Amino acid sequence: MTTPDADELRRRTQDLLAAHPPAATDRTEFLKARFDAGLAWVHYPAGLGGLDAPRSLQPVVDAALAAAGAPDNDPRRIGIGLGMAAPTILGYGTDEQKRRFLRPLWVGEEVWCQLFSEPGAGSDLAALGTRAVRDGEDWVVDGQKVWTSSAHLARWAILIARTDPDQPKHRGISYFICDMTDPGVEVRPLRQITGEAEFNEVFLTGVCIPDSRRLGPVGEGWKVARTTLMNERVSIGGARIPREGGMIGPVARTWRARPELRTHDLHQRLLTLWVEAEVARLTGTRLRQQLVAGQPGPEGSGMKLAFARLNQEISGLEVELLGEEGLLYSDWTMRRPELVDFTGRDAGYRYLRSKGNSIEGGTSEVLLNIVAERVLGLPVEPRNDKDVAWKDLAR
């Protein structure tokens, strides 16, 4: 089979549209047909939503489908599945796991969440204490996870747990796929400063996970998790947005529409942040182009760092620009939303919600270390726990 080029992908896209006209086809059925035609992720293998085509050709398909009014898979709602679970399953899953999970994940029939962070192992994720004990062909999992986006909506979770406490912390971890509907899984909302509870804490009590839902070898879960984390940071910090997309957009629109709010100082700060937002956007484009040639690297951590800092500085500027209006907060109702909508809400929401950007997806402090050591080649920080068994670590 020859590798499809842009013309071949356009032809296949037109064939899909002819066989399944978007206006006359159920949304889910259209998405399933798109996946089966290899036009979901064109760079994925044939039969798994792709055609083994260059990743750079995905926009060719996306543009043609958008022009025809075809539905998308609501990527903001299923971002954890698309950006984190899917590439990890593709990289480490068995053929059976890939066939079982990738199609409903991409179509959006099954929402995913990420059971990584713990109350006692946040920034030091490898120190996690959730235990998975082998019981025949199953694993019995006990522990607690926290800051879990979409856990209240999710059918499946990617989970890391400690399977060998006698090994150093990075070497005694295994990686599993957890059914969130199984007995022993309890999801509790975590109300945030915004008033909403998009995050959750998850309690795992005697949860039975078949060994067939393990990703990667036993004890090598940290290696698998790093694939997830690198993809997570790219998906957060390297998202495709237009010029003046994201947080800078509402501020720029307010500046143009409300000349009475302008001051020289605010003007200078807006210009600086506008330029930085544009540089970050173009850097994200370059990062996605690099992905065409291989797997995401530590550069994604740098993008996520920039994303967090810019969002917080831009939202702070917006509140100052609005003056007294910036102190208003429209709604503090307790809700459990399906997605985070930065640009569709008011300035107060953006200001409060952006505070979490430097924590979620890896704290800024941890990411600074990653960039320093793996991108800049600076000396590694001293560690006294590298060869110590996890059970012997001070806690």
Shape: globular
Q: Percent of residues in beta strands?
A: 5-15%
- Please tell me how large the radius of gyration is: 22 Å
Estimated structural class: alpha+beta
- Describe the largest sheet: 4 strands, mixed
Proportion of residues in helical segments: 40-55%
**What is the string of helix and strand elements?**
HHHHHEEEEEEEEHHHHHH
| Oligomeric state of shown chains | single chain
Q: Total strand count, please?
A: 8
Textual characterization of the structure:
With 395 residues, this protein is of the alpha+beta class. 40% of the residues lie in helices and 13% in strands. It is built from eleven helices and eight strands. It has helices at residues 6-19, 27-36, 58-67, 79-92, 95-107, 221-237, 248-257, 264-291, 299-322, 347-353, 364-375, and strands at 112-115, 131-135, 138-145, 156-162, 173-179, 185-190, 199-210, 214-215. The strands form two sheets. The protein has a four-stranded mixed sheet with strand order 1-4-5-8. The chain has a four-stranded antiparallel sheet with strand order 2-3-7-6, with no helix packed on it. Strand 6 (185-190) and strand 7 (199-210) form a beta hairpin. Helix 7 runs parallel beside helix 9 (299-322) and helix 9 (299-322) packs across helix 11 (364-375). The longest helix is centred in the last third of the chain and has 28 residues, at 264-291.
